[in-house]
Amino acid sequence: MHQLVIASNNQGKIREIRPLINGIELLSLKDIGFTDEIPEPYHTFEENALVKAITIQKFSNKNVFADDSGLCVNALGGEPGVDSAHYCGERNDEKNLRLVLEKLKGEADRTAYYKALICLIWDGEVYYFEGTCEGRIIEEKKGSGGFGYDPIFIPDGYEQTFGELPLEIKNQISHRGKAVKKLVAWLNEKTGMNEE
Ligand code: IMP
Questions:
Q1: Is the CB of 6 under 6 A from ligand 1?
Q2: Count helices and strands in the chain by DSSP H and E runs
Q3: Is the pLDDT of residue 47 over 90?
Q4: Residues 131-186: pLDDT tens digits?
Q5: Structural domain boundaries of the chain?
Q6: CA dist., res. 64 & res. 4, Å (int)
Q7: Residues with catalytic annotation?
Q8: 71 C-beta closer than 6 A to ligand 1
Q9: Does the domain spanning 3-191 belong to CATH 1.10.10.10?
């Protein structure tokens, strides 16, 4: 069976990605013995996803993929964007989402979207897969599922936040779900692995 390393320590992301990829052996950073923080020094999702994938590819010499993602709020000029993970100055989901709510106080336009950029390095070649998910930010958090900004984000077409909707629904419509499905289609074509 082919192997593929997920270049992430974010358990929220890994929990979502795992059920979407079958027919290939997925390795975690723990499995390959990588214990450092992966640097993400850039200002675009593409560059950060690439640097994460390259770091782990060099370390493991295996095929790898990395997800760089974030929440972009239109009234905040696209913030928190690439700084989503540590918008408040530290890696703290609760403080990050409180900061977004604070900055949006009194703001009429509460539209936002999530974006996920997956960078795959397969046999030394680099490929990108992208997904977005449009929605809006509510006034107070609801639900305790998902991770990050999910309790304050309602996807278009729904009345519940990603913190309330089950993982199966989130995976069908989310930025990450869409990007991973493109990755799976590519892998299926390349390796003949099972899509389902
Ligand atoms: P990264 O590790 O730099 O890609 O950071 C991604 C950050 O974006 C996460 O830590 C969350 O704050 C936010 N984010 C990305 N995707 C999601 C999602 O699906 N739900 C909630 N927050 C997300």
A1: no
A2: 5, 6
A3: yes
A4: 999 999 999 999 999 999 999 999 999 999 999 999 999 999 999 999 999 999 99
A5: 3-191
A6: 5
A7: 68
A8: yes
A9: no
